[in-house]
């Protein structure tokens, strides 16, 4: 028999973890010596090996406890649960790969010298995480072919688009900070760059249809429950709207 410290050293499990396993009813010491110290033997070693094996393939401690108590560690019951466990692990792997790709993506933007706010960072990460929701959202405003074409862009193409938008965002922030009026030529120039960027990634007929639909939605006060992630602050959106109105009035004059 081994004391808890001896058992921990032989198995590579910390005494803190062993005490925690006892606390949650997962692994109890078989005996205690005259001094009241926990004692572990071969039976506890076998149980610990089962715990570590199940933990290694992704089962939670609560699930492991269920196996050991309710199922008696039956291999039949374990076998029947493995397909679902594999599916869950594959989904987790996909999520981790997506998270790693997102880190690489954002790191690439920052290394290129683009400044980024928390709002913009959240928008980029939401955009990546909620791609399927965005795809459905785009299909409501654009043709299905265009929506698919947009999401078929390569990582490099999307990164270039994001870089262009970040440059425009920085210019809009500067215009606002410098109190440049909406009718100023430099303010209009930024909006023209925005429209040019949109036209590069969107067919003209798609862009016109979308802008009319958005204008109608805003005027009617009926906004969709799903909000497309945006890195623009309300102040920046208001400023851009004022510049657009100034351009429109100038064209009518």
UniProtKB/TrEMBL annotation:
PROSITE patterns in the record: HTH_MERR_2
Domain HTH merR-type: 1-70
Keyword Flavoprotein listed: no
GO molecular function: DNA binding
UniProt KW keywords: DNA-binding
The UniProt record lists the keyword Cell division: no
Domain of life: Bacteria
InterPro entries (alphabetical): DNA-bd_dom_put_sf, MerR-type_HTH_dom, MerR_fam, TipAS_dom
Name the UniProt record assigns to this protein: DNA-binding transcriptional MerR regulator
Species of the source: Virgibacillus natechei
Species classification: Bacteria, Bacillati, Bacillota, Bacilli, Bacillales
């Amino acid at each position: 028999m081994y004391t808890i410290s001896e058992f921990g050293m032989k198995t590579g499990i910390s005494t803190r973890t062993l005490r925690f396993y006892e606390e949650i009813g997962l692994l109890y010491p078989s005996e205690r010596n005259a001094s009241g110290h926990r004692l572990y033997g071969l039976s506890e070693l076998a149980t610990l090996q089962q715990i570590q094996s199940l933990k290694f393939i992704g089962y939670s401690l609560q699930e492991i406890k269920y196996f050991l108590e309710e199922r008696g560690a039956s291999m039949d019951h374990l076998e029947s649960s493995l397909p679902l466990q594999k599916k869950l692990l594959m989904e987790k792997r996909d999520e981790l790969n997506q998270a790693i790709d997102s880190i690489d993506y954002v790191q690439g933007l920052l290394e290129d010298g683009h400044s980024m706010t928390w709002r913009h960072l959240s928008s980029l990460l939401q955009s990546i995480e909620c791609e399927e929701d965005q795809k459905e959202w785009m299909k409501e405003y654009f043709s299905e072919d265009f929506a698919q074409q947009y999401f078929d862009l390569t990582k490099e193409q999307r990164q270039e688009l994001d870089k262009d938008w970040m440059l425009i965002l920085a210019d809009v922030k500067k215009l606002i900070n410098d109190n440049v009026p909406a009718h100023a030529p430099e303010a209009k120039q930024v909006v023209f760059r925005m429209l040019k960027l949109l036209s590069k990634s969107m067919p003209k007929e798609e862009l016109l249809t979308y802008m009319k639909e958005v204008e109608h939605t805003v005027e009617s006060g009926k906004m969709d429950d799903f909000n497309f992630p945006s890195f623009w602050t309300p102040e920046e959106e208001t400023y851009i709207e004022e510049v657009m109105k100034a351009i429109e009035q100038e064209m009518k004059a």
